[in-house]
UniProtKB/TrEMBL annotation:
Pfam families (alphabetical): zf-CCHC
Claim: Metal-binding is one of the keywords in the record: yes
Organism classification: Eukaryota, Viridiplantae, Streptophyta, Embryophyta, Tracheophyta
Domain called CCHC-type: residue spans: 267-282
Single annotated GO MF: nucleic acid binding
Record-given protein name: Predicted protein
Length: 351
C-alpha cells in the first residue's frame, strides 16, 4: 500500500514542476502570434509638419484605439521592471509594432528626426511638442488670417465651404485653446465662441445667401452653428430649384436694330444724296443740303433768310457750311448790310 501512494505523490510533484517550467518559459504568448494580432493598417495621410498635424494625429489616435493600444502610445502603460516576465515580452512586441507604424506614418525627413527614440510614447510626445502648434503665435496669426479671408467661391457648395471653415476652427482650437477652469465659465465661453463662429460663417457666404442670413440674424435668439448650416443648405437647394425653373425665351429671328425712316431706303436723310445711309454720311452733323442747293443748312444752301446761295456770301444769316455760301464763319451773327435787295426783303440787316 505504501508503494502506490508514493508513486502518486511523485507524479503529482512532477506535474507541478512541469507547470512551473512552462509558465517561466514564456511559451504562453508566442511572439509571432502577438505581432500578427497587433498588425496596424497604414494611415491615409502622412505627417508633413505643423500644417497637417491635427488631422494626422486624430487619424493616428483612432487607429491605435481600435487595437486598444492608446495607453502604450500616450505613455500610460510603462515598461515592466522585470525583464523575464511574459508581460515584459508582450510590452516589447507592442512597442516595436507601434514604433515601426509611426515611422511609416510620417515623411522621411520627420522619420529621420525621431528614429533615435526607442519607445512609441517618446516619439508621440516629441511629434506633439514639435508640430502641434500650441502656443505658436505665428501659426495662430496665420490661421486667423485664413478664417477672415475665407469666402465661398462661385463654384463652391455650402457644405464644402463649411468643411473648410470647420477645419480652420479645429486648428484654431488646437493652437490657441480657451483655458477656463470653472464649469459655468466654460459653458459661457463655449456659447460666446459659437456666436462668433455663426457670424463668421454667414459673412463668408455668397451674396445670394445674404437675405436668408439676415432673417436668421433678426431672430430673438441667434441660431446654433448646426441650425445655421442646415438653413443655408436648404436655401442652396431652393436657389438651385429656382434657377432650374427659369424659362429661356429664344431670341427672335428678325430684330430691329435701328429706327427706320420712311422714304427711299437708299437715300441719305442728311445730305439727300443717294448711295449711302445717314450713319455713313460724310457731312453728318452739318445739316441737310450740304452738297446741293436748297433750303436748310449746308455749303451750298440758301441760308436761313431764303436767298440764293451766291447772294449772301459771308453776309447771310444762314447756319453751317463754309464761308461765302450759307453763312460760314459769320453764321448766327447779325448782318450789317444787304446788297441788291428791296426794302421789303427779309434781310435783317437792311436799313
Amino acid at each position: 500500500m505504501a508503494e502506490p501512494n508514493a508513486l502518486a505523490a511523485a507524479f503529482e510533484k512532477l506535474a507541478k514542476i512541469l507547470a512551473e517550467s512552462n509558465s517561466n518559459s514564456g511559451a504562453i504568448v508566442p511572439r509571432q502570434e502577438v505581432a500578427q494580432k497587433l498588425e496596424m493598417s497604414p494611415l491615409d495621410m502622412k505627417l508633413e509638419g505643423a500644417t497637417n498635424y491635427l488631422s494626422w494625429s486624430r487619424r493616428a489616435l483612432l487607429a491605435v484605439e481600435q487595437k486598444e493600444l492608446d495607453g502604450h502610445l500616450l505613455g500610460a502603460v510603462d515598461e515592466p521592471g522585470d525583464k523575464t516576465t511574459a508581460e515584459e515580452k508582450r510590452w516589447k512586441v507592442i512597442n516595436s509594432v507601434l514604433v515601426g507604424w509611426l515611422f511609416n506614418s510620417v515623411v522621411p525627413s520627420i522619420s529621420r528626426f525621431v528614429e533615435g527614440l526607442s519607445t512609441s510614447a517618446e516619439i508621440w510626445k516629441t511629434l506633439s511638442t514639435q508640430y502641434s502648434g500650441k502656443g505658436n503665435f505665428m501659426l495662430i496669426a496665420q490661421i486667423e488670417g485664413k478664417i477672415s479671408r475665407l469666402r465661398q467661391g462661385d463654384d463652391m457648395s455650402v457644405m464644402a465651404y463649411v468643411a473648410e471653415l470647420q477645419a480652420l476652427w479645429a486648428e484654431q482650437d488646437n493652437c490657441d485653446p480657451l483655458e477656463l477652469y470653472d464649469a459655468a465659465c466654460i459653458e459661457s465661453g463655449r456659447k460666446w465662441i459659437a456666436r462668433r463662429r455663426v457670424l463668421e460663417l454667414l459673412e463668408g457666404l455668397r451674396g445670394c445667401f445674404h437675405g436668408r442670413g439676415a432673417s436668421l440674424l433678426h431672430q430673438p435668439l441667434l441660431p446654433t452653428i448646426e441650425e445655421t448650416i442646415a438653413a443655408m443648405s436648404q436655401e442652396e437647394v431652393r436657389l438651385s430649384l429656382e434657377h432650374a425653373n427659369v424659362k429661356f425665351v429664344p431670341a427672335s429671328t428678325f430684330a430691329v436694330t435701328e429706327r427706320m425712316e420712311w422714304g427711299d431706303p437708299n437715300k441719305c436723310h442728311i445730305c439727300g444724296e443717294v448711295g449711302h445711309w445717314k450713319r455713313e454720311c460724310p457731312t453728318r452733323g452739318r445739316g441737310r443740303g450740304y452738297n446741293r442747293g436748297g433750303t436748310g443748312r449746308g455749303r451750298y444752301a440758301r441760308g436761313r433768310g431764303g436767298y440764293p446761295w451766291n447772294s449772301g456770301g459771308q453776309l447771310s444769316r444762314g447756319r453751317g457750311g463754309y464761308s461765302g455760301n450759307s453763312g460760314g464763319q459769320r453764321a448766327h451773327m447779325v448782318v450789317e448790310e444787304c446788297r441788291g435787295y428791296k426794302p421789303d426783303s427779309r434781310c435783317v440787316g437792311y436799313e
